[in-house]
Each structure stands twice: as C-alpha cells, then as structure tokens.
Amino acid sequence: MPDGFRSLAEVFDKDPGLRRIKKIINESDVVREFNKIFPDFEKVVVPLKVEKKILFLKVENPAWRSELKFKENLIVEKINKYFNESRIAKISFGR
Q1: Who has greater pLDDT, 24 or 57?
Q2: Which CATH architecture has domain 8-94?
C-alpha cells in the first residue's frame, strides 16, 4: 500500500472511536452465522444477541436446553474457532 494508507482492519483495530463499531459487528456476525455453524440446531435454537461475550440463545424444548447446556464448552469452542478469535465466553439458554 502507498505510504499513509491503512487497511480497514488496521483502522478498526487502532482507532478508539471505531473499536465499539467493530465489537458490534463481531457480535452480530455470531448471531447471523450461528445457523451456518450449527445447521442441525436451526429448528430448535434461535440466536438472539451477544452481550459482553455472552451468546443468548432461545431454546423452547427443555430437553434440548439441557443437552446444549451440557455441550456449552464445545459450542463456544466451535464458534471461536469458526471466527479464529475469542468472540464468545459463555452461553445463556432461555425460553
């Protein structure tokens, strides 16, 4: 790149005013891509939002909720691996 030019990734990472925007984009990416990462969950899980690295999922069926809670660490690892960075630390399962 010519001198003085920076990539968009570099701008988002280094500009304090844009870090919040990057965080919001990263969080919405997790919700948007959830069914692509876990296509088998599409009919039983609705990703709602991400706040402070907590992914909120709506799970109507108590049996599925219990099963997913048991596999929470694996789900978190798979999401973070998909994005090649730590975006999720915990999952909150609700109705």
Answers
A1: 57
A2: 2-Layer Sandwich (3.30)
